[in-house]
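Human: I'm a chemist; would you kindly supply sequence and C-alpha cells for a protein?

Assistant:
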Amino acid sequence: MTDVTAWIGRSERVHDQLSRNLLLRIAATLGEQTPATGAPLPALWQWCFFQDPLPESGLGEDGHPARGGFLPPADNRNRMWAGGRVEFIEPLRAGCEATRVSTIKHVEEKQGGTGALLFVTVQHDYLQGDRLAIREEQDIVYREPSPPKVRSSEPLVAGEWREAVTPTPTLLFRYSAVTFNGHRIHYDWPYVTETEGYSGLVVHGPLIATLNLRAFCRANPTARLRRFAYRGLRPLTAPQPFEVGGRVLAPGKAEVWAGDHNGLAQKGEVEFE
C-alpha cells in the first residue's frame, strides 16, 4: 500500500503569461469582453492558466495527468473537483507575467456511502512580481466507481438574482480547451456514459463556480470580492439547462448556488466589500 500522506508538503512552481491570445479565447467561450492589457483579470479566470501541457503519453485513461507525480496515486478511482476556497487579495493583471505556487496541504482517506474516498487539498498561491494576488485551496476527491448522484435533497430556491445557463457540448469542449483540461467526462460521450456512468457530458465544477460568481458580480457591480467558498453537491450534465443565482444575507456576505429541477448542484458563499 502506498503511503499517500507522503505527498503532503510537495510543491511545484509554474510561470505563465496571462496572454491576450488566450484571454480572447476565454472571453469568447464565456461570452465576455476581453480585458485590456493591464486590466484586472475577471474572477476565477486564473484557472485557465498555469496548466502543464503534457503529451498524451503522460495522461491516464481518464484524460487527467497520470497519477503518482505531483498528486498522489489513486488507481481505479474517478477524480472530481469537489470545491474550494478563494481569497482575492489584489487583481491579477491581464497580459502580465504571473506565477502559481502549488503545495499539497492535506491528504486523507475516508470511507463514504459509495466506498473509499481519497481527499486531497492543494493550496495555490498566485503571484505577480513578488506580490501575492490570490490564495486558493482546492479540494479534490478520488472515489471508487459508483453510480453518479442524480438528485439533491436540497431544492433549488428563489433568490435575488438568477441567470439561466444552457450547457451545450460546444461550451464544455471550449472550456476544456481554454483550461487545457483533458478529462474525458467533459467531451467524450462514449467514455462518460459507458465507463463512468453519467447520463451525459459533465459540466465542469470550475465552470459552474465561474458562472456562479459572475452572476453575483453582475447583480452586485460595486462589490469588491474578498473571499469565495464553494462546494459541489452533485454533477450537472449537458444539455440539461440549469441556473445560477443567489441572495445577499447580510452586509458583505451572500450565498450563491447552481442547480436545476433535480435540486442544488453547487453551493457557495461570497464575502465582499
In short: Residues 248 and 254 are 4 Å apart (CA to CA). Helices lie at 20-30, 169-178, 189-195, 205-219. The chain has a mean pLDDT of 93. Residues 205-219 form the longest helix (15 residues).
